[in-house]
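Tokens for chain A. Residues wanted.
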């Protein structure tokens, strides 16, 4: 009986210890919800409310092959801006986007919003990935 009790006690303590050691999973739904506000504040004036952009001036984010192709590039472009030609959905755009002074969380949130709105479907961008992109 002592062995069973000891085994049960050890199992409970081990599982409790392991559950505290694990990081909570990333909540993309909350990130997307916050990202909508960031998008409205910083992105809507050029990329428009539904991410359609302005033809021949500002590229679309809706169903954007360019943006969805490279998560690291998207992080860099929000942080540091973009200038020069880019090709989005078969069209060349040559305008300038300034870098944005956003926190790692805000960059994560706005990218999660855009990458999961306007016909896009993408995996999560975490604040840790943004932080790594700053270096």
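Reply:
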């Amino acid at each position: 009986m002592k062995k069973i009790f000891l085994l049960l006690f050890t199992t409970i303590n081990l599982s409790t210890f392991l559950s505290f050691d694990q990081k909570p999973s990333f909540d993309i739904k909350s990130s997307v919800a916050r990202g909508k506000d960031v998008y409205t504040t910083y992105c809507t004036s050029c990329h428009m409310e539904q991410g359609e952009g302005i033809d021949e001036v500002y590229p679309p984010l809706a169903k954007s092959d360019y943006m969805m192709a490279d998560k690291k590039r998207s992080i860099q472009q929000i942080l540091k801006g973009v200038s020069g030609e880019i090709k989005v959905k078969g069209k060349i755009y040559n305008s300038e986007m300034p870098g944005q002074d956003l926190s790692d969380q805000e960059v994560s949130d706005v990218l999660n919003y855009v990458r999961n709105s306007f016909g896009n479907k993408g995996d999560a961008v975490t604040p840790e990935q943004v932080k790594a992109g700053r270096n």
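The chain has a mean pLDDT of 89. The CA atoms of residues 58 and 135 lie 27 Å apart.
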